[in-house]
Design goal:
The protein is an alpha/beta fold. The chain has 10 helices and 10 strands. The strands form 2 sheets. The chain has a 6-stranded mixed beta sheet, with helices on both faces. The radius of gyration is 19 Å and the shape is globular. 41% of the residues are buried.
Length: 269
């Protein structure tokens, strides 16, 4: 039986994820400067901004790697400040990283099976053969097909291509059944064709889930997101639909500029 929330779960606030006057300082340097953001269940939100804007710090605050200096992070209406990352994960949030995090010496199937064990209630089970866990094996097989690696079932993760390793990490990220998924630059380092396929993959595997992604490729942003949050100097400059953000003069001046139209046109070809 799964210990995670269902994909459509939201707390009394009505939001899957809510940030309230969130701040983070390192010494005297304030990196996150009072961010407010409310993401509805099932929304796909891209977080964009120049280097040093605080995007990775924001992800670390949401996922529990950093504790806020002040303000609140609410997951499905529950305040998660101060919880450890694994505790937040068990409440229904999972994330990937800029640097691929997989078990290189395990096969594709074994990586995915590891990711589903806790959510299926196995926890610290030392006296069961994994091959006999029919539900875990079935779920791992399902995930493997979703990320299109079923033909690489027994291949060690270290021997996959870069794009395949990224796909495997996404499979691991969603394997525990989290209803809120954070992806940190999921298409970084990919070719245009790989990126195009990856946008489709992300859309497919996050159906019914709430998605936040940090992304620099505007083609990915406009092809994937329902809304865009523009973060500049630790603050949200704009949070709106892609069309509204693209037309926002303040956003163009601070970050996007005239290149947006060019990138959007290029993504359409």
């Amino acid at each position: 039986m799964s210990t995670t929330n269902s994909p459509t779960t939201a707390g009394t606030s009505g939001y899957a994820l809510e940030l309230k006057d969130l701040r983070k300082s390192f010494g005297k340097t304030e990196i996150i400067r009072g961010i407010n953001l409310a993401v509805s269940p099932g929304e796909r939100v891209a977080i964009i901004g120049p280097n040093g804007a605080g995007k990775s710090t924001l992800f670390n605050l949401i996922s529990g790697r950093f504790e806020p200096s002040s303000g609140d992070v609410l997951l499905n209406g529950t305040r998660i400040n101060g919880l450890k990352p694994f505790e937040i994960n068990r409440l229904g949030l999972s994330r990937s990283f800029q640097i691929t995090n997989i078990f290189p010496k395990l096969s594709v199937f074994e990586n995915l099976r590891c990711s589903v064990l806790w959510s299926l209630g196995y926890k610290y089970t030392f006296f069961k053969f994994l091959s006999g866990l029919d539900d875990a094996n079935a779920r791992a097989q399902e995930l493997m097909e979703m990320i299109h690696l079923d033909k690489k079932r027994d291949v060690l993760a270290v021997n996959l291509t870069y794009a395949e390793q990224r796909a495997l990490e996404i499979g691991i990220t969603i394997g525990g059944g989290a209803n809120v998924v954070l992806l940190d630059e999921p298409t970084a380092g990919m070719s245009k064709s790989e990126t195009s396929r990856f946008i489709t993959l992300i859309k497919d595997v996050t159906v019914g889930k709430t998605l936040l992604t940090v992304e620099h490729d505007m083609g990915v942003v406009f092809g994937l997101a329902d809304k865009i949050a523009v973060v500049v100097y630790g603050e949200v400059l704009a949070f709106d639909t892609p069309d509204a953000v693209r037309a926002n003069a303040r956003v163009q001046e601070a970050y996007l500029g005239s290149s947006v139209a060019d990138q959007q046109a290029g993504a359409a070809h």
